[in-house]
Amino acid sequence: MINLSNKEVWFITGSQHLYGPETLRHVAEDSMVISESLCNSARFPVRIIFKPVLTTPESIYEICANANNNNNCIGLIAWMHTFSPAKMWIKGLSVLNKPLLHFHTQMNRDIPWDTIDMDFMNLNQSAHGDREFGFIGSRMRMGRKVVVGHWQDEEAVDRIAVWVRAATAFNDVHDMKIARFGDNMRDVAVTEGNKVSAQIRMGYSVYGYGIGDLVASVNSVTDYEVNSLLEEYVVSYELTREVAGSATLRDAAQIEAGMDKFLKAGNYKAFTTTFEDLHGLKQLPGLAVQRLMEKGYGFGAEGDWKTAALVRSMKVMASGLPGGTSFMEDYTYHLDPSGMSVLGAHMLEVCPSISADKPYLEVHPLSIGGKADPARLVFKSATGKAVNASLIDLGNRFRMIVNKVNVIDCPDMPNLPVASVLWQPMPDLKTGAAAWIMAGGAHHTGFSTAVSAEYIEDFSAMMGIEYLLIDENCDLTSFQKEIRWNEIYYHLNEGIK
Ligand code: MN
Description:
This protein is an alpha/beta fold. It is 39% helix and 21% strand. Bound molecules: manganese (II) ion.
């Protein structure tokens, strides 16, 4: 359900008429080579499209206005091959509402010491031309990413690819419809938030449904649809004959098919449930939620629509990358001084995209909720680098908090009937958890082994929201100062919006 095939990023190059047609022809040729090289890189999930060299205020304005109005264009990469006087850019940049990346590169990697002359110098001027462009971006207080390096420098290309993927998620949030089955879990604060502010700032639109609306869809599911899913389960998971033939699993399949129909019919990208409101459903949707997340839906439990949307955005950024992305909760701690770690899990709803192996499909009682024993996939996560991200509403603004973590091998837990992940937060559990709590980070997160913190940083910048990173360099004293300074910055910057 995540389809990026028709999306594109436009590669624009600035210059001016001063240099004459011969130089401008070289500029266009070089720009085409660079944009094609980027486009052909397997790192990019969308096409990079070369656009004719810009030499006048009118052509700059036109390309910015066209980018705004083109639904497939998700952002612009700008490069000043030569000097491009930046007053020409003011009109265009003042209307541009697509993400902008400034690629500070040049055609040649090395200076040709033996042959360099003034013609070469006049053609290859980005070292100062891009500074002029940088000034106008700063003067206009424009959010943008700046990437520096030769266009064949893998590190530079990787950073552009991260931004492109963030732009796909930013494009995706503009019609982020979230279905909320039931309301918020009673009295929980962090899962709440101002939905009008969220729509103005981030495009989220939350549609609340009585659980009866979902039950009607579940009841409309045919035997054929249920049987098809049951066959799929047998192929995809490890399960006993007893579970395969159980009425419980049939009920779980019916719930999955009913939810799937409901979400497709309404073009929803994310959804929430709450175990406090299951009226008319035979069991808490566990397997259904896990499998729908794997298909690309965002999910948040207990009515958590912000985390649902965030999980969806992280899945869009991660589309086609190795690793997985899931709804997650910090569940319980291992406080052994020789290696403190967090066991992450949820009642049921962890996405199998992060599983190390083929998941087990099991049925167990649920200790809270008072419904029939739900089916669920049980597995351990793959190990390695990962991130936890949380999006909270501070009243006057939204804040994104990211903690880098290392997922480690987890001992067997024969009595734990849910999927789980064991990680060590950076820089260490004591510092990481203290910083997270000082920042107000939620117990619910978007967890990913596919995207790094830089993706979420770029994405947050595109949405214009606060971003706090807790990584290997986190120092609590500095972190608390950053929080206090941000209070002032956002108060002055945002005013009353
Ligand atoms: Mn929860």
